[in-house]
Task: inverse folding
């Protein structure tokens, strides 16, 4: 992991996915656009057994709406993050760290690489029922062939596909 | 049944899924009238007649004629699998079947004429279809006749109570359970030029006035907010000149959380329409309607805790039910029970606590079911209206909104709350 993440210019949220996939590559399962009670979780990383789930909400600018969604994702995922462009992330880490810690939401800065700036925590909002619902949604992807992000980026960006299994190693 | 006699603002609920019947009955003191969509009144005639007959509340039927000016595919049902999910073709497009049964009954048995011709020809109605006076008159007659008669006959099972009603000195109406008003057929006004529906809509209101002798005729003004912004004075003047006895305002696609400019347009439109003293009722109305009372709004209609925005051109496909939501009175917004109410932990916000009967029984909103959350909505909305009827001033209402905004705007879980600031600002201007 590099100590510094150079800024990159992203025009779409999906453009931030590649560095995020590299960050979580050890977990094994990566699914984008995961339906969850009428919304979609942008990226969900999980161990193959699905015992541990890590949810990531991406946003280029409106980090507050990503933050709220990340807080809701805590109902079903043990760890929940927002991922924003590096410059915004460093500003948030500096000025809003208390907020992230208070709600146990993690913060990831994304540039050429992705880096966790505030670690998330599993909190009392975790609900086994919601977790099971999310797991049963993920089980639908069991036999799907993982795709490279480049192939499905447009479909993710225009939200025309749900439950897209992504190749964890992209390079 | 005449117009509501309660002080304004009047609250109307639009009849939706049939499991609402008990809610309407159990909480009949929390609202002033009922709106029944024509296709529901047509298809579920017996249910609606009994329901309306037993409710003894003012009602009117929305003739839903706008839908025939939409893409004809909107009249067709989405094909569903056994789980209620919409079937898709190989390209992922949603599959459509034949014309929805509720609409086909309305078309075949009631509206007939030029509506039937358009649907049979798989095309939308256009203003040119109303060029012939006799055909147009026949159409207006059918639409009004349907509204007047469809639910007016009291169900036979109530006849046996007639003698008891007489003995009690409250004779049952012999003329039947008439609607409080008839709604002239209407189509969406997207522009006031000669190509649009505006002139035809006015013509339909005028014809309806000549046909409906004993009942007031209301004009449904279905109009895009940007048209309202440009031409509200002319629209109000034209509809008043057409002789409408009241107005049902449907700003197409409008919702209470829109930006201040759009809120201002609707506020001004209500003020303009209400200048003549005729009732103005907002359709598909959210909590902003409470603020619109101060512009002269007489009443508003929505579903019970849903249906607070509708775009006339939207092809609605319901996959599964509407998720239960809990109305936060102080914040004038709803949160989803399954996720938001559970995560926010509302019991940590004393000022958001509710003391309605439902919440006293189940203080944690996250544990309320769909029925309970909707009962809560009915009770709370009735109380909000009661406060206005008791004389809550515009300045005080604005101050309440502003206080709630200032207290909670920075809370990441309660956001967005911009609507509170926008409404307060508009009321303070």
Result:
């Amino acid at each position: 992991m590099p100590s510094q993440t150079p800024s990159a210019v992203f025009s779409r949220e999906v453009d931030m996915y590649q560095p995020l996939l590299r960050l979580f590559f050890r977990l094994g399962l990566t699914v984008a656009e995961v339906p969850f009670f009428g919304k979609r979780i942008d990226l969900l990383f999980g161990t193959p057994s699905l015992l541990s789930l890590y949810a990531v909400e991406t946003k280029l600018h409106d980090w507050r709406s990503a933050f709220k969604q990340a807080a809701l994702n805590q109902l079903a995922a043990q760890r929940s993050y927002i991922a924003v462009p590096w410059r915004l992330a460093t500003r948030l880490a500096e000025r809003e760290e208390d907020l992230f810690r208070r709600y146990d939401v993690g913060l990831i800065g994304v540039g050429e690489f992705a880096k966790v700036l505030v670690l998330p925590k599993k909190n009392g909002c975790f609900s086994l029922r919601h977790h099971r619902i999310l797991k049963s949604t993920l089980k639908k992807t069991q036999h799907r062939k993982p795709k490279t992000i480049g192939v499905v980026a447009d479909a993710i960006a225009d939200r025309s596909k749900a439950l897209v299994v992504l190749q964890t190693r992209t390079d | 049944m005449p117009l509501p006699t309660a002080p304004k603002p009047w609250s109307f609920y639009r009849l939706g899924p049939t499991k609402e019947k008990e809610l309407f009955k159990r909480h009949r003191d929390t609202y002033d009238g009922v709106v029944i969509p024509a296709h529901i009144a047509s298809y579920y005639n017996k249910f609606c007649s009994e329901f309306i007959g037993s409710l003894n509340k003012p009602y009117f039927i929305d003739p839903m004629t706008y839908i025939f000016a939409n893409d004809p595919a909107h009249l067709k049902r989405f094909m569903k699998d056994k789980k209620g999910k919409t079937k898709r073709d190989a390209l992922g497009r949603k599959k459509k079947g034949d014309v929805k049964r509720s609409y086909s009954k309305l078309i075949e048995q009631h509206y007939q004429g030029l509506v039937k011709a358009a649907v049979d020809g798989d095309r939308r109605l256009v203003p040119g279809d109303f060029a012939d006076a006799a055909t147009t008159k026949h159409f207006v007659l059918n639409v009004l006749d349907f509204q007047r008669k469809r639910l007016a006959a009291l169900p036979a099972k109530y006849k046996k109570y007639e003698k008891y009603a007489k003995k009690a000195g409250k004779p049952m109406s012999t003329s039947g359970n008439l609607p409080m008003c008839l709604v002239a057929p209407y189509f969406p006004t997207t522009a006031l030029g000669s190509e649009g529906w505006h002139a035809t809509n006015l013509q339909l209101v005028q014809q309806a006035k000549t046909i409906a002798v004993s009942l007031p005729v209301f004009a449904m003004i279905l109009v895009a907010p940007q048209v309202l912004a440009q031409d509200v004075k002319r629209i109000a003047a034209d509809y008043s000149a057409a002789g409408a006895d009241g107005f049902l305002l449907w700003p197409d696609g409008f919702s209470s959380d829109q930006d201040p400019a759009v809120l201002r347009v609707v506020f001004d439109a209500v003020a303009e329409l209400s200048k003549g003293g005729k009732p103005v009722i907002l359709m598909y109305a959210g909590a902003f309607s409470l603020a619109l009372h101060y512009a002269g709004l007489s009443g508003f209609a929505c579903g019970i805790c849903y249906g607070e925005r509708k775009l006339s051109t939207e092809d609605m496909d319901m996959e599964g039910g509407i998720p239960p939501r809990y109305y936060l009175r102080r914040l004038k917004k709803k949160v989803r029970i399954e996720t938001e109410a559970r995560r926010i932990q509302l019991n940590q916000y004393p000022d958001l606590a509710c003391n309605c009967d439902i919440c006293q029984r189940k203080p944690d909103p996250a544990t309320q079911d769909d029925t309970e959350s909707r009962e809560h909505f009915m009770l709370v909305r009735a109380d909000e209206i009661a406060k206005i009827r008791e004389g809550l001033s515009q300045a005080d209402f604005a101050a309440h909104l502003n206080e709630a905004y200032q207290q909670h705007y920075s809370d990441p879980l309660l956001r967005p709350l911009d609507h509170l600031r926008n409404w307060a600002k508009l009321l303070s201007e």
About this structure: The beta strands of chain A are 29-36, 39-46, 53-58, 79-85, 106-110, 114-118, 164-165.
